[in-house]
Automatic annotation (TrEMBL):
InterPro entries: DUF7587. It comes from Friedmanniomyces endolithicus. It comes from the Eukaryota. This is DUF7587 domain-containing protein. Pfam families: DUF7587 (PF24494). Residues 219-341 form the DUF7587 domain.
């Protein structure tokens, strides 16, 4: 990590020269950010065309004699509304453009450390992009201007992108631990950053991985978590933290796998058996995730009904596990079987293993504090519904559907087990939900996950090749 500053400056310089040399000849796919930009552009075209049509109507009414005043005023009111929509659509394009340009810059980096550096400065880089777009406007050299400004901010002492802005909080966190558990930079104690700032931790982690890598299963790409104000620990758009990391930070950094098997098994069973509401055990250092999007969506619907609270108050967090280090997430079944082999006659553990036969919903666990910013997407249940969730799957919205959770998921899986054809309308709605709600992730993979809550045949092939049952059987 010592040469990151020089590498970043060199990267900026190379990107400037490369982009200047090739101009607009190569426009690479920046994934969901390009999809979002295309969507906002299409929306702007639609709104602009409607505005032009409304403006022509106003002009016609103005030129025509005998027009009722109420009719004329009504047309003017509609034109003003369309004008406002054009402004909003224009701002949405600017935001999408900023995200897309940043994604393109990120794609240029092939070095993991430099990639992390750029991700750390994402808000400041995007601010530079937005400011430059606002000042330069119609200029074919805007990309080179953006890169040159980033270069200046990265190379100049005190610049917005200077390397000190990355290392300073990490060093402060390293100096504080373990003498000041309440230090403000607690978020930097997550697994990934501790590997960088704590040599002893890194050595211990390397040993642990050598012991576990032969049988620790890989996590599926996406894991999901439902949370609201009544959830244990802390969850928001940037991080999730266990109860122990809040109330007992001194013990929250103890790796479950480093504990004696009997103690680890006790903590694991206590977490998996805890209540869904109310204060959790302050010693609970685990956080639950699921590989089944269906499972966490039904959980969100159930919490709204049980709490009660509105869909706007319940959120779903999706993390991209490929952006986290190995060992960040562990399958609950892997842990249960591991401790079943090392502890004897544990009734709680045996009961959990028995329940997983009928209620295996792909649960995964993380520990302590997990900073997921720039590696996740958080969306409210309300936004999912407004984007078409109940149009695609109306069954969970039924009154009896809101009253159940695990049993309801099992019933839905049974109900949706027969193969069915997929309509173009269903594909359109699933894509719409993925684009509007999970724009930071692979929209195609999320759309497929939504569609395959039900077992489906592909509509465009005579061979009827079957789509994977991502929603019916938890992956991983």
């Amino acid at each position: 990590m010592a040469d990151i500053s020089e590498d970043a400056i060199q990267l900026m310089g190379e990107m400037t020269l490369t982009c200047l040399a090739r101009g607009d000849e190569k426009i690479a796919d920046a994934g969901p950010d390009r999809v979002a930009l295309n969507g906002e552009t299409q929306k702007f075209i639609h709104v602009a065309m409607e505005t032009v049509a409304q403006a022509n109507q106003v002009r016609t009414l103005s030129q025509r004699g005998g027009t009722l005043l109420s009719q004329h005023v009504g047309a003017l009111s509609s034109l003003n509304k369309r004008s406002t929509e054009v402004m909003e659509a224009g701002q949405a394009i600017r935001t999408a453009t900023t995200k897309y340009i940043y994604a393109r810059l990120l794609m240029e980096s092939r070095d993991h450390d430099v990639h992390k550096l750029l991700s750390h400065f994402e808000p400041k880089i995007r601010a530079i992009i937005g400011d430059t777009l606002g000042v330069i406007g119609d200029n074919p050299n805007v990309l080179s201007t953006i890169l040159e400004e980033c270069y200046e901010q990265a190379s100049g002492q005190g610049g917005e992108l200077h390397i000190d802005g990355y290392f300073a909080p990490l060093y402060e966190a390293a100096f504080a631990w373990p003498y000041d558990p309440g230090f403000k930079a607690e978020q930097y104690y997550d697994h990934e950053n501790r590997l960088q700032v704590d040599e002893d931790y890194a050595v211990a982690e390397d040993m642990r991985q050598q012991r576990s890598e032969r049988d620790l299963p890989e996590s599926p790409r996406y894991l999901f978590r439902t949370f609201d104000s009544a959830s244990s620990g802390k969850s928001d758009e940037d991080m999730v933290a266990s109860s122990a990391s809040i109330y007992m930070p001194g013990t929250s950094r103890d790796d479950l796998l480093s504990l004696e098997p009997k103690e680890a098994c006790k903590k694991l069973c206590a977490h998996l058996n805890k209540t869904c509401f109310g204060d959790a055990d302050h010693a609970d250092n685990l956080i639950s995730w699921s590989s089944s999007l269906l499972f966490v969506l039904q959980y969100a619907i159930w919490r709204c009904n049980k709490h009660p609270c509105s869909p706007a108050e319940v959120s779903i967090c999706v993390v991209d596990t490929t952006k986290f280090p190995y060992g960040q997430f562990a399958r609950d079944m892997w842990l249960l079987k591991k401790y079943n082999n090392t502890t004897k006659e544990n009734a709680d553990l045996q009961n959990l293993l028995h329940l997983r036969v009928d209620y295996d919903n792909g649960e995964y666990l993380s520990q302590g504090t997990l900073t997921h910013q720039n590696r996740s997407c958080v969306v409210t249940l309300e936004k999912l519904i407004r984007s078409g969730l109940h149009d695609l799957h109306p069954e969970p919205a039924h009154t009896n559907g809101r009253e159940g959770w695990t049993n309801r998921v099992r019933d839905l899986r049974s109900m949706w087990a027969e193969f069915r054809l997929t309509t173009q309308q269903e594909i359109r709605v699933a894509s719409q939900i993925a684009t509007k709600c999970f724009h930071a992730l692979s929209t195609s993979e999320i759309a497929i996950s939504l569609l395959t809550f039900k077992t489906r045949d592909h509509p465009n092939t005579s061979m009827k090749s079957k789509l994977p049952r991502l929603g019916l059987r938890p992956q991983g």
